[in-house]
């Protein structure tokens, strides 16, 4: 599952004892300080989360296994300690900052967390001009993914749904969801009629775009609730009194940040904030909602099901901002995916299938898109490492397809990342291996097996 780091830099820095530290001057000291802050946050928040909902009891025993490639630490509700980095490197997981993976360590549910790269100091300052990770980013990420791995693993999921945004991107549904987000933000702020106004935009979006609403429902549930929990964890870590003015102020700042940077990007990017705000409002009401969401309802539907719609005008400034975002993305995403689509559709193209079970750690992406022709789901700017039988594949911010199907050349696998290649690119080297090195791929594996039923498909083995 794709992950966008949940940036909190500047949103809550003035709050708590966690951030009041001396200046951090070296990468090693920054790393040590970040580990200490994550450990303090874990000790403060995870036991409290364990008491919140039945599906969150695992937080009481869960762990974070953090590594920057040279050193490693084990973090839980009782503190942190350095551990043998060699044993962690043996897991063959990338140490890059923001990577993650589920695993069992010493018999306990664990989230692996990469720590390499630039880290912010105590004042959320980055050592270079490049973006860097704050302790809130990394703690939120670990909390968020832990819920996916160990709290939502038995949640009901609908068949044949997709988080992909139809491409070309349509402006209107992005505007409807943006207006809905704005009304939920107003509800957090206590504005009268905000929920009725939100109900209007929800029902209008569902009526005019029923297929999108059906496809994105699971993502609204899964990602929205996970973001609610990771933001709740940061609030608990900073000891902000629940439902206090301080609590509300932080939620509003987060919503304003999301209105600025999340709307208009894609339907699944909106899922995080819409689900998080709806979950927060349900909890504030004291409604019993968690098990109904686990069974298939969305937080949005539960929050607004009893709210008569109140017709209201769109915020034109927000609509215009979303229109501009969509237009920019149409241009550069179209340019990025066009070569992939052309190669895929070429009569002599070859498709390299990489089983997703070979993925090492997490992947990064810039969005999921669906086309009316070609593969159902494209992943834009997919960045990942896969450990395959007899070799490795490194994908470097390339467009790939995501395919859920069985192929005779890969028995036992039914989920793949698919790369469209020319015959020249997918041809054996002198030693019979597939060696491909360019700006998009670094692949060195035994030459993949050709499918008998679909001859242009070539399967790498996990």
Describe this structure in words.
This protein is 40% helix and 19% strand. It has 11 helices and 15 strands. The protein has helices at residues 27-50, 85-89, 135-151, 171-188, 194-208, 210-237, 245-261, 267-285, 290-294, 299-304, 316-345; strands spanning 63-67, 72-76, 79-83, 100-105, 108-114, 165-166, 350-355, 368-370, 377-388, 391-404, 415-421, 433-437, 441-446, 449-450, 457-459. Strands 6, 7, 8, 9, 10, 11, 12, 13, 14 and 15 form a 10-stranded mixed sheet that branches. It has a 5-stranded mixed sheet with strand order 3-2-1-5-4. α1 (27-50) crosses α3 (135-151). It is globular and about 70 Å long. The chain starts with 26 loop residues before the first helix and ends with a strand. Mean pLDDT is 93; it is low at 1-17.
């Amino acid at each position: 599952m794709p992950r966008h780091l949940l940036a909190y830099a500047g949103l809550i820095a003035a709050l708590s004892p966690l951030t009041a530290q001396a200046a951090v001057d070296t990468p090693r000291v920054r790393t040590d300080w970040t580990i200490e802050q994550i450990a303090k946050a874990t000790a403060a928040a995870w036991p409290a989360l364990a008491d919140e909902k039945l599906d969150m009891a695992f937080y009481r025993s869960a762990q974070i296994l953090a590594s920057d490639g040279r050193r490693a630490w084990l973090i839980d509700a009782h503190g942190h300690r350095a551990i043998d980095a060699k044993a962690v490197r043996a897991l063959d997981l990338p140490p890059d900052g923001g990577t993650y993976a589920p695993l069992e360590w010493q018999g306990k549910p664990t989230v692996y967390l990469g720590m390499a790269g630039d880290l912010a100091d105590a004042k959320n300052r980055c050592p270079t001009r490049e973006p860097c990770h704050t302790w809130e980013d990394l703690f939120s990420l670990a909390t968020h993914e832990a819920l996916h791995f160990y709290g939502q693993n038995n949640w009901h999921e609908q068949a044949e749904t997709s988080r992909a945004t139809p491409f070309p991107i349509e402006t209107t549904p992005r505007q409807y969801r943006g207006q809905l987000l704005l009304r939920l933000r107003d509800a957090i702020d206590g504005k009268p009629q905000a929920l009725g106004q939100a109900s209007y935009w929800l029902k209008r979006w569902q009526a005019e775009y029923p297929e999108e609403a059906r496809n994105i429902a699971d993502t609204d549930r899964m990602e929205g609730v996970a973001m609610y929990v990771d933001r709740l964890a940061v609030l608990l870590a900073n000891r902000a009194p629940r439902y206090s003015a301080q609590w509300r102020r932080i939620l509003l700042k987060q919503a304003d940040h999301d209105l600025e940077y999340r709307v208009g990007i894609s339907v699944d990017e909106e899922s995080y904030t819409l689900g998080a705000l709806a979950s927060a409002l349900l909890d504030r009401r004291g409604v019993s909602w968690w098990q109904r969401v686990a069974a298939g309802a969305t937080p949005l539907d539960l929050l607004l099901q009893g709210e008569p719609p109140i017709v209201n005008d769109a915020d034109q400034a927000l609509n215009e901002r979303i229109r501009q975002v969509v237009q920019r993305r149409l241009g550069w995403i179209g340019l990025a995916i066009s070569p992939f689509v052309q190669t895929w559709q070429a009569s002599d193209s070859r498709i390299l299938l990489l089983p997703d079970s070979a993925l090492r750690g997490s992947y990064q992406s810039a969005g999921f898109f669906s086309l009316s022709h070609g593969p159902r789901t494209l992943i834009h700017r997919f960045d990942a490492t896969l450990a395959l039988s007899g070799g490795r594949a490194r994908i470097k911010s390339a467009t790939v397809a995501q395919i859920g199907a069985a192929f005779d050349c890969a028995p036992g696998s039914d989920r793949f990342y698919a790369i469209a290649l020319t015959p020249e690119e997918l041809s054996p080297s002198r030693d019979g291996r597939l060696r491909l090195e360019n700006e998009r791929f670094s692949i060195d594996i035994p030459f993949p097996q050709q499918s008998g039923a679909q001859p242009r498909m070539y399967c790498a083995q996990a």
